[in-house]
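Exercise 7. Predict the joint structure of the components listed below.
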Amino acid sequence: MGECRYKRVLLKLSGESFCEPGEFGINGATLESIAERVIEVCRMGPQVAIVVGAGNILRGETFSRTSHIPRNTADYMGMLATIINACALQETLEKMGQPTRVLSAIEVAAMCEPFIRRRALHHLEGGRVTILAGGTGNPFFTTDTCAALRASELDADLLIKATKVDGVYSDDPKKNPQARLFDRISYAEVLQQGLRIMDHAAISLCRDNGIPIIVLNIFRKGNIAKAICGDPIGTVIGPA
Ligand SMILES: Nc1ncnc2c1ncn2[C@@H]1O[C@H](COP(=O)(O)OP(=O)(O)OP(=O)(O)O)[C@@H](O)[C@H]1O
Ligand SMILES: O=c1ccn([C@@H]2O[C@H](COP(=O)(O)O)[C@@H](O)[C@H]2O)c(=O)[nH]1
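Solution:
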């Protein structure tokens, strides 16, 4: 394995990486294997901030569409679910010896610190994995947009979207088995072709702030480490 090319990395972990494929909730063994990957990256030297999703527990848009719960409340429930995932990840990383902090955009004073940019920077500079929970704190957003926002605020050199597919495809690979995997694609092409790997707000924010994105499969061991060494893996989204 080569050397880390980045000083500060923001890792977006899909909520679904906390459970077995097709299941819900948090699977202890799956979480331990994700934490091992995070620690492997930390040992390579970069400062690591993590934004956690909550697709393993609740997505506001789907929940409001399929129940009587209004979208605003469903989205707040989704943001609370990211705090549950963040606390589970924190305990797992710390059990393995990695210092961490959880900072949340929604205040849950008994469990975590509030998100304050300067405090997040202080923790990163102190070598703590800084887990950013509670999304943006606003409904009608997603944790992808939150990841792009925090990467911009914290001057991250790279945003890694760690998900359950191998990268960006010409179409949703779960629906179209003929979809082609890109090794590289521009921000503009993702937006123009309407590719739904991430929200377009997230892509636009990264484009405007010059932050490259690598989309990769979290379930394949060594993928994140390869990404931060600049080895070819997943799909790089960057300038044309
Ligand atoms: N063009 C595309 N290329 C790759 N994946 C795509 C594309 N269009 C849609 N997808 C879908 O996007 C999904 C990736 O997003 P993911 O499910 O990880 O969601 P998330 O909202 O980031 O995380 P969470 O699980 O926390 O909700 C893939 O499972 C894939 O089916
Ligand atoms: O800024 C935000 C971030 C998230 N939400 C809600 O949380 C869930 C879970 O996040 P995912 O990105 O889908 O994993 C999301 O569906 C929203 O309901 C939010 O409201 N604001």
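Discussion. Strands lie at 8-13, 47-52, 100-104, 113-114, 129-133, 158-163, 184-186, 213-217, 235-238.
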